[in-house]
Design brief:
50% of the residues lie in helices and 11% in strands. The chain is built from 17 helices and eight strands.
Length: 392
């Protein structure tokens, strides 16, 4: 069912409140357009709450409804919110309704702790747990188009319809294996990331900083911040305002007037008003205290020993992940191993900060062993029974 009228929405909210007050989880999903935009354009919200006699289920049309009342349900810590790979969904709820989701259960994350692999797709998880084969015929639907057919609406609702039974299965398995706390810590990280306010002054860090001086980096930082502001105000991707390469070239050349700025390849279509903002950013950077300029990025080839050390640490992580039926990527991504190895080479292993791989369940499962290996307190050998490399 598609709800597009306020009176229907009000009635639906009442039914949802009754269902969730009786302990039902709230399954959520969204359809959106993200291409050529700064913000995702919300096109549909799908909701499903199981009841004793069926379910409260509908697709909500954000083009005709004020969906802000959903925030109360999304923020209610007594209601379990079910999503699958819900990072963008949670971000959309925050951006559109100001809702900071509470008590979220992400079935993709939960699956990563139970041997379903890293980032398993929803359709695959539905098939493995419920034996239902979902259709993929509407995978590339333009959800902004209206009217939506009954087939499209049913396809969209299938994305929430099977979340409750999957949740029950995964929740029970997490409890049985003592991993509920592990998953909850990752759910919390997902919520924090989705509701984090991006600092425009960090936008330059996404770019190629190789070969730039501190002065050039200062210009790049100010220019990238201005680009972010303009892009957000016009709801366009930052690269549509000014391409990355053009922004880096601006940092190198530091133009003094609009003619010089527009002479840079990729900047010819910039409006006079926006061009002036970029010129002002150049001057802001050049007149700022040199002590505030970013440190130059060291583009020299990393220590050749790093690859060998990371490879050895990766062997331990991979074998631990396989033995524990946990996604390797959740356990210890390469960036964490790089930082550990760098501290080892620098002789500062005792000064490692609060790396996630050394904290909580990760530290217990593998982090402390990695540090012990680097200190020479443990060694890697093959276990003839497990057919895996293990620490001894």
């Amino acid at each position: 069912m598609l709800i597009s009228k306020p009176a229907q929405f009000a009635q639906f909210l009442e039914e949802l409140q009754v269902a969730t007050s009786n302990g039902a989880p709230l399954a959520l999903d969204t359809e959106f357009l993200g291409e050529k935009r700064y913000f995702e354009r919300l096109c549909l919200v799908q909701i499903h709450a199981p009841t004793e006699i069926g379910a409260v289920e509908a697709a909500l049309d954000p083009f005709t409804l004020d969906l802000a009342p959903l925030a109360k349900l999304i923020e209610d810590p007594s209601i379990v919110k079910l999503v699958h790979a819900g990072a963008v969904d949670l971000k959309i709820f925050f951006q559109n309704f100001g809702a900071r989701p509470q008590n979220v259960f992400d079935t993709q994350i939960a699956g990563a702790f139970l041997g379903y692999g890293h980032q398993i797709g929803y359709a695959d998880l539905v098939k493995r747990i419920t034996r239902v084969q979902l259709s993929k015929t509407m995978q590339y639907t333009d959800w902004s188009a209206r009217p939506l057919s009954a087939e499209q609406i049913d396809y969209a609702l299938a994305d929430v319809r099977y979340l409750p039974p999957i949740f029950e299965k995964l929740r029970a398995d997490l409890e049985d294996r003592g991993r509920t706390g592990w998953a909850q810590s990752e759910f919390g990280r997902a919520i924090e990331k989705a509701t984090r306010q991006f600092d425009d002054s960090d936008a330059y860090k996404r770019l190629n900083l190789s070969g730039l001086s501190r002065k050039q980096l200062a210009v790049l930082r100010e220019g990238a911040s201005v680009r972010e502001t303009i892009a957000r105000g016009n709801d366009k991707p930052p690269s549509f305002v000014m391409p990355d390469l053009a922004l880096i070239q601006m940092a190198r050349q530091q133009p003094k007037n609009i003619a010089d700025l527009r002479a840079i390849r990729g900047i010819t279509t910039l409006s006079t008003r926006d061009a002036q903002k970029f010129l002002d950013s150049v001057q802001t950077a050049l007149t700022s205290p040199t002590a505030d300029w970013p440190e130059a990025w060291d583009s020299a080839r990393p220590d050749a020993r790093l690859d060998s050390i990371i490879a050895l640490l990766g062997v331990v992580v991979s074998s631990t992940a396989a033995a524990q039926d946990v996604s390797r990527s959740y356990l210890a991504p390469r960036e964490a191993l790089f930082e550990l190895a760098s501290h080892y080479i620098d002789g500062t292993l005792d000064e490692v900060g609060p790396l996630p791989v050394l904290q909580d369940w990760r530290g217990e499962l593998v982090g402390r062993d990695l540090v012990a290996l680097l200190r020479g307190e443990r060694v890697v050998s093959f276990d003839s029974d497990l057919k895996l490399p293990v620490l001894r």
